[in-house]
Amino acid sequence: MDTEGGLYLNGNDLAKIGYLYLQDGVWDGQRIVSSEWVKESVTPYFQTDEAQFKYGFKWWLAKLPNSEEYVWTCRGFGGQNLQVFPKEGLIVTFTGWDILANSTGKEPFPSDFLAAVKGKSCGGEAH
Q1: What is the tens place of the pLDDT at every residue in 26-49?
Q2: How far apart are alpha carbons 72 and 30 in whole angstroms?
Q3: DSSP strand E in the chain: where?
Q4: Which of 36, 55, 91, 122 has the highest local Cβ count within 10 Å?
Q5: For residues 73 and 60, what is the distance between their CA atoms, to the nearest angstrom?
């Protein structure tokens, strides 16, 4: 992932940010980020121009349909995303690079795939 500011992350490294927040700022038994900051940063403060998103401190917050749960999302350039589902303990990363002007790509929204994750089977063998 290129953040357009010189930070390059692969999917695993991006997922570590989500894991740190799921663990309330603690990594390997050591506090890295204050619990207060974690809580404040994923609190919705602003309604964005996009009805489905609110904004915290650097987190886009998407409410799932028929739920009070917010999914914590980092939305990067070219369709690169980190999505954290706190209730499910689930972290999803997208590291595509959809930057063409004539692209017909669609940014993945959390509710687009959560049903498949919650299903009894995703239709393939477990590896």
Answers
A1: 999 999 999 999 999 999 999 988
A2: 22
A3: 26-27, 30-31, 46-47, 53-55, 60-63, 70-75, 81-85, 90-94
A4: 91
A5: 5
